[in-house]
Design goal:
With about 450 residues, this protein is mainly alpha-helical. It has a domain of about 250 residues. It contains 19 helices and two strands. It has a two-stranded antiparallel sheet. Helix 9 runs parallel beside helix 11. The longest helix is centred in the last third of the chain and has 32 residues. The radius of gyration is 23 Å and the shape is globular. The two termini are about 30 Å apart.
């Protein structure tokens, strides 16, 4: 029974990785993932923890609660004299005037049905977060093995896709000709590759600490080298600019994890990683790589990041400070497109989670983002300066940093697959587990000693 309980979160993450790789497609499978999340959430809320929840975990759940409160506030009907005073509502008022209708009570969200729909997309991530923090229904090494297994399969599928086999793609709306794996977007596949790197290192370190057998250590080292090499091949096949810019700092941070097994990491060690990260971002945005944010072509393209960023910022400022409502991007954005350059290709997201949330949630959303980043930074410092700590928690800081950085120029968190992995990272950071090590006398009956640090 306990084994089944520990398999709940790993099994659910497996389903999300296999079926939750799209945001603008795959509605039916995403609905299934959302329905499966409901019993996990219900079980988590009804169950009693055997131990008190640590302070960082409580803080994280408070942030989740504040986010849900924001959604509820956006859905509360307001009298006309209130909502008409909100910025960006002029077109709605004019529409009722042209139809000769009196103004009704309306919420902050300009499209409340889309707001409710967007909240449902959060259910998988909430299920994983609560499943770990409230139920403890997981084993970290099982989750990492699932992650490695799915990523390995995705790389193989990506190689077939790059070979020109369109039948190997899982979604109609996708990046044909690129390695997308189980995703519809090649950039999101790149995010999965980067996430897997530090967790592979964590699996090696965690299992290495459990045994001092040279044979086992050699086998684990071969596994680490093999998976790492495969991930690098996957990044080359994938060809994402985000992966090119962020892979080096992710590898460097994963290397620090490996070095920390035998020596204490110097306090200045994050500085070179920060410099490399900045250099990687500059590389991504440099003209020769052909990105669609800073090049001259980007300024004239109706679907470039430059255009979508500019339009989204204009829309966000017009709807500030209340925002237009979560999930309303597709309703608001077409109003800010140039009719002379519009084509049959539409922008479903702004390719920046931060800008899209700025538009949809306004000042309250910016405050929540700032509070979360403060929590994340505080937990990252605590985890890396704690000496011997949960290696999976350290891996979670690296993986979540990659997701947060990638979200500046894309929308990986809009997919169930990446959102549940981000929730996993946050949960592991909120409640690191003690390091279990075997000491002298290992392997001799009656002479095993375990220590929990």
């Amino acid at each position: 029974m306990q084994s089944l309980r520990l398999a709940v979160v790993p099994a659910y993450i497996l389903l999300c990785l296999l079926m939750g790789g799209a945001s603008a497609a795959g509605y039916w499978v995403n609905m299934l993932l959302q329905l499966l999340a409901i019993p996990i959430i219900g079980w988590s809320l009804l169950a009693e923890r055997p131990t008190p929840m640590p302070r960082p975990a409580r803080q994280l759940l408070i942030l989740l609660g504040l986010m849900l409160v924001l959604v509820v506030v956006q859905l509360i009907p307001l009298p006309p004299f209130v909502w008409t005073a909100l910025p960006g509502r002029g077109e709605i008022v004019e529409g009722y005037r042209l139809m000769g209708m009196s103004l009704p009570w309306l919420p902050i969200s300009v499209s409340p049905y889309d707001t409710v729909s967007s909240v449902l997309w959060l259910l998988p991530a909430i299920a994983v977060l609560l499943g770990i923090l409230r139920l403890g229904a997981y084993k970290a090494n099982w989750i990492v093995l699932v992650l490695i297994g799915v990523t390995t399969a995705a790389i193989a599928i990506g190689a077939i896709q790059r070979a020109g086999n369109d039948a190997a793609y899982f979604y109609i709306i996708t990046n044909y000709g690129m390695a997308t794996g189980f995703f519809s977007n090649a950039n999101h596949m790149a995010t999965l590759l980067m996430i897997t790197m530090p967790f592979t290192a964590a699996l090696y370190l965690s299992e290495r600490a459990r045994s001092r057998s040279r044979q086992r250590a050699s086998g684990l080292l071969v596994l680490l080298a093999g998976v790492s090499g495969l991930l690098l091949i996957g990044i080359v096949i994938n060809g994402s600019l985000a992966a090119l810019g962020l892979t080096i700092p992710v590898i460097g941070a994963s290397g620090l994890m490996l070095l920390s097994r035998k020596r204490r990491i110097p306090a200045w060690s994050p500085l070179p990683l920060l410099a490399i990260t900045v250099a990687g971002i500059v590389l991504i945005f440099s003209g020769p790589l052909g990105n669609n944010l800073t090049t001259a072509e980007a300024r004239t393209s109706p679907i470039s990041r430059y255009t979508s960023f500019s339009n989204t910022i204009d829309a966000a400022l017009d709807h500030f400070p209340a925002g237009s409502g979560i999930g309303t991007f597709k309703t608001i954005y077409p109003m800010y497109e140039d009719p002379a350059t519009m084509t049959t290709t539409y922008v479903n997201h702004t390719h920046s989670d931060y800008l899209e949330l700025f538009l949809e949630t306004g000042l309250a959303g910016l405050a929540l983002i700032a509070l979360f980043l403060l929590w994340w930074a505080g937990r990252s410092v605590a985890i890396w300066t704690a000496g011997e700590t949960d290696q999976y928690a350290r891996a979670a800081t690296i993986a979540s940093a990659a997701i947060l950085a990638h979200s500046m120029v894309d929308y990986p968190l809009r997919t169930a697959a990446i959102s549940v992995l981000f929730a996993l990272c946050c949960a592991l950071m909120a409640e690191p587990r003690p390091v279990i090590r075997q000491r002298e006398g290992e392997g001799r009956p009656g002479a095993r000693h375990l220590s929990a640090d």
